[in-house]
C-alpha cells in the first residue's frame, strides 16, 4: 500500500514537470517574438535620429542607420563626411582596446615580457567574457599580448597590458584619459582597459573616430587588427601549445559581410553598450574610418558597409598641386635678368604636392566642367 502511494506521488510529480515544460515551451517562442518585435521598434526609433550631415546644403545624402550614433571620417585629415548624433556619450565595450593598444605601443618595447597576474586572470568571468585562456604567472611578449587583445578581444590581456604599462588599472586609466584629450576627445571618460561595463566608462562616436585615426595610422597596430586568427607560440613561460585566438568580426575576407579594402577593425559588445564597431577601409584614393555605436546585430556590419559605400561613392581626393599650377612661381621668371640671384632654380612659391582636400564627387565634376 505504501509502495502504491509512492508510485502515485511519483506519477503526479512527473505529470507536473511535463505540464510545466509544455507551458514553458509554449511561452518561450512568444517571449522571443515579443523581444524581437521590441528590438525592431528600437532599431526603427534609432533610424529616425537626425543625420546632421544630411542637413548641409549640397552635401551628399547619407544612409539611415540603426545605430544610436555613427560617424565616417577621412583617416588622414579627420574631415567628417557623415555625422549622426556623434557627441552622445555611450558605452564603447571592447572597442576601448584600440586606445589601450595605442598607449601600450607608445610606452613599451614590443619584446617586453608581460606577466599575467592573478588579478588579471581573475578580473573576468571566464564563462562569458572574451579571453585567451592564459594562466596566472604566465608571461608572453607585448606583441603577442596585443594580438591576444586585438584579435581575440581577450579581456585579461588588456588588464595585464595595463598593469605592465602603469603598475595598476587606476594609473593606466589616467594615461587613457590623458591620451584621449591629446587626440582631441571631448566626450570621454575611461576607467577600464578592456571596456567591460562600468557606468563611468564612456565615450562618443566622435571621440572613437579620433582615437581610431591615431590607431590606424600605426601600421603595426593596423596589421594586428586585420588579422583573423593568431596562435600564441608555446614557450617556457607560456606552456599552452594550443592557444589560438579568433577575431569576432565578420568583415574579414571570406566572412559573411566581407569588406573590400579592409585596413583593420575592432568589435565590441556588452548588454549595455550593445554592438559597437570601429573599422578602417580604403580604395584607390581614399582611406576612411567608420564608427557605429549602440547597434543591433547584424546592423553593425551592414550599416558600416553602407557608410563606406556612401563615402567611396560620393567623395574623392582632390590633390590641389595636380590640378592648379597658377600659384607656382619659378625664380627664373620672377625677374628680367640672366642671373639666378636666389642661387637656386627651384620655385620660390609652390603648392605642396602632398596637400589635398576631400570633395563631393558632384562638386569635382562642376569644377572640371568650368576648367
Write the layout of secondary structure elements.
Blueprint: H1 2-47, E1 69-74, E2 80-84, H2 97-107, E3 113-115, H3 118-121, E4 139-141, H4 142-150, H5 155-166, H6 169-182, H7 205-216, H8 219-225, E5 229-232, E6 243-246, E7 262-270, E8 274-282, E9 287-295, H9 299-314, E10 315-319, H10 320-323, E11 329-330, H11 331-334, E12 347-349, E13 356-360, H12 361-370
Helix pairs in contact: 2-4, 2-5, 2-7, 4-5, 5-6
Structure description:
The protein has 371 residues and is an alpha+beta fold. It has three domains: 1-48; 54-315, 3-Layer(aba) Sandwich (Beta-lactamase), CATH 3.40.710; 319-370, no CATH class. It has twelve helices and 13 strands. Helix 4 packs antiparallel against helix 5.
User: What's the number of helices?
Assistant: 12
In angstroms, what separates the terminal alpha carbons?
107 Å
Shape: globular
Q: Structural class per helix/strand content?
A: alpha+beta
Low-confidence regions? 1-5
Instruction: Give the tally of β-strands.
Output: 13
Largest sheet: 5 strands, antiparallel
| CATH hierarchy: architecture of the largest domain | 3-Layer(aba) Sandwich
Give the tally of structural domains: 3
Roughly what percent helix?
A: 40-55%
Instruction: Please provide the ordered H/E string of secondary-structure elements.
Output: HEEHEHEHHHHHEEEEEHEHEHEEH
Rg of Cα set: 27 Å
Briefly characterize the structure.
By secondary structure, this protein is α+β, with helices and mostly antiparallel strands.
